[in-house]
Amino acid sequence: MGSAVITARAAASFKPVGRSVATARSFVRDTLQGWGFADIVDDAVVLTSELVTNAVIHAGTSADVLCLRTEDGVRVEVSDLYPDRELPVQNSAVSMGSPDREGGRGLQLCAALATRWGVEYTPTHKQVWFQLDLPDRPVGTRAAGPVLPADLLPLTDGRVRVAVVQIDRASAITAWNEDAEELFGYSGEQVIGKPLTDLAAWPHTPGTGTGIAEALQLSRWEGSYGIRATTGRVIPVYASHLRVRDTAGEPSTVCLLVRDHERAVLQTPLRTPNTDTTSSAEGQSADPFEVFIGSPAPDDLDGLLQRTVERARDMLDGDAAFLLLATDDETELEVRASTGLPSARQRFARVPVEAGPGRYGSARMPSVHDDLAAVPGAVPLLGGTGMRSVVTVPLKVEGRLTGSLGVAAESPSRYSNEEALRLQFAADRIALAVESARLGELERLRRGSLSFLVEASDLLAGTLDRDQTLALMAQMTIPTLATWCAVYTIAEPSSDPYLSYVLHEDEERIDGLKALLSKIDPPEPIPTPGARVWTAPAQAAHQAALRTSMRSLGLGEPASATSGVGTTLATASAVGGETVVLPLVARNRVIGMLTLGKPTDDHFRQEILELAEDLSRRAALALDNARLYSERTAISQSLQRSLLPPELPSIDGVEVEVIYRAAGEGNEVGGDFYDLFPIRDGAYGFAIGDVCGTGPEAAAVTGLARHALRLLAREGFGGPAVLERLNSAILDEGARSRFLTLLYGELWPQEDGSAVLKVVCAGHPLPLRLRQDGTVESAAEPQPLLGVMDDLELYEETVTLDPGDVLLCVTDGVTERREGTRMLGDDGLADVLTGCTGLTAGAVAARVMRAVERFASAAPSDDMAILAMRVPEPQQN
């Protein structure tokens, strides 16, 4: 290194495995950015990538990378354990060799990019090193370019507006200048404090690549995306993000945005040749177009592809560029990035590898089309775009076709074989990085898909409510899988599909979307698995937008108002893309359809459709389970309600209040029951009982008991006779019989304002009487319970309630309420009742229930019934 002073060093070792190349790139990038050498990071990463690839892939040994920092630049040394490996050096110059050759490129790049480079040998190691010096730049400027004629300067539409937006660490907007307001229509008051992610239309596949939130956290980022304006239209922008911090150390991001076609204002200039470049093969200089790489991180496939097409377009001075990646079987190419095309409608669209006539139809070879008008359909991607000439080259890794890169122009005969060779050389340089990032994306997508499906299954299994299941289905798909979705359900096999749920990532468009879908016929319920394209929504949206535009121009039928024009156009833009339908099939029956949609001209990628198909199978079963559960619940509740007494009668001179709580989720009736019914003129029967156990079996006995009590009492039997006959009926049930505790009584309101009661307490908690002076006493004696013995000898007791007195009857779910070893008990209930002096029957029942609930923190495990009867005091005049 001569006399250069080393001010810092960083070293790392990498195993002889493929993933080590990406790790080495990250190590060098992070190291140099930390040293503040952003100007030479890209070159250093490219060179390190090639040299480490030579070591760990081609030589098959481990690699040691050492970064040395000086005041003028950086030296990077890559050492391997293969000292005898030959170098492709001829006559002091690096042979370029075959363009398909995988080895030796690291030295070619050293010759092209490094200030100095060399190779050193030891008995056990070979070390390749390169030196990159920082460029000399005038103070106050970042880069300088040549003077250009006026006709070669970038075109702008009048004044160039640069939106300056500042974002805090939580991605919320903290500053919004006048140009931003002019470009996008939002005032500062409307957006400050909101996340930029709410406005950004980021071309991003969930679970893969870098999203807008991640890009805002990078130290630097540069590229294209969209901003949703107030009109609902997405405005393509070119942005430059810079991460900064204030004097207090608080980080934030400054974003500069211009309209995409004015990107020259912000775009980082291409490298210029370094006239001082020297190496062991002196005299060679670098063609600035031979090698290019973007600033995204190595595992950011979307950012890498977008930067690649942008640099390719600029490299050949084209009007548009595009990049396609091959599917796993290499029979189709999927559009993954484009720039300069009229719209983003091609994203994730697929075209066959062998498309079009002649040698120009194959993506496996470089091709040049002088005039697409003469070869219609040769490049399906460019149909209807106005492009006339195009050059395409394959992306290959180890002889396999991994993609295709193309640059197009609006004028014919723009490109020759020379441009094709230059583009092919650039494609060869980027192919390995693209393939590595693509494989990483697939792995993340698979892991993300599994995680997504596991979470979806857990959420769907956690509910048996039909409406909640529908909402979960939609919320899980938006925005992870689609921009909007609609769920159609089919109640019966012969019934028509019904639009049950609609969701859009923009809540303000849900109503418009629902109105649009309600006007078109639903999709056919075809049980064939997989997604199928449904064109009706896009066609309806297009027609609605066309009619609205004509009315607004006064060319169509008159409209009462034009205030809905923006809403209609926004809805059309949101629904106008690709729409797919997936059948919801459960138990060999189509129970509905899941419809997923994209905004205008967008396509679904195949991996997303496969994930949606997996989700639809799980969602269909969950939805059908919810339907079955709802039907059975409705039947159960209907039967249970039939066991409850009808509305309580109004008794002159006596206040009555009942509180009933059945234990167990979904139960309306349990083992506890109550009743109050008229027997004859002036006489009423009342009962409160508890069947052994809870649930449906106990509820069946309560139904028997309640109906038998009414029937026997109205036949004129007294209390003991009624209970003795009920006891026989319970024993007749045989194995289904259950013992029953029951408090039965008959009530006669008196003319003097009191009430006479005759009660029989068969094994039930004793009724409590509250007098006006606050004393509490039992109002009956205990007798044998029912359903145990054949011969019962029961008797009735007479109780007189004076004005202001209360008779409280409860089941043992009240008195046996527990908290640990403590139990409320009869004494605790009496204490609660003592404090109810002067309260109405309703207030007494409510206070008792509140005391029971507060006694323990756990939910009640037993049924509870409370019957309170009170004789009111005479009204004072």
Description:
By secondary structure, the chain is an alpha+beta fold. It folds into five domains: 6-84 and 105-135, Histidine kinase-like ATPase, C-terminal domain (Heat Shock Protein 90, 2-Layer Sandwich); 163-265, Beta-Lactamase, CATH 3.30.450; 301-416, GAF domain (Beta-Lactamase); 463-551 and 567-634, 2-Layer Sandwich (Beta-Lactamase); 644-871, PPM-type phosphatase domain (Phosphatase 2c, domain 1), CATH 3.60.40. Helices cover 31% and strands 26% of the residues. The strands form eight sheets. A six-stranded antiparallel beta sheet has the order 9-8-13-12-11-10. It has a six-stranded antiparallel beta sheet with strand order 16-15-14-19-18-17. A five-stranded antiparallel beta sheet has the order 1-2-3-7-6, with helices on one face. The longest helix has 45 residues, at 417-461. It starts with 7 loop residues before the first strand and ends in a 7-residue tail after the last strand. Mean pLDDT is 79; it is low at 85-103, 140-144, 270-298, 355-361 and 558-566.
Task: Describe this structure in a few short sentences.
Pfam families: GAF_2, GAF_3, HATPase_c_2, PAS, SpoIIE. This protein is α+β, with helices and mostly antiparallel strands.
| Strand portion | 25-35%
Sum up the overall morphology in one term: elongated
Count of beta strands: 36
Class from helix and strand fractions: alpha+beta
CATH top level of the largest domain?
A: Alpha Beta
Short descriptors:
single chain; 877 residues; alpha+beta; Heat Shock Protein 90; Beta-Lactamase; 5 domains; six-stranded antiparallel sheet; elongated; phosphatase activity; PAS; hydrolase
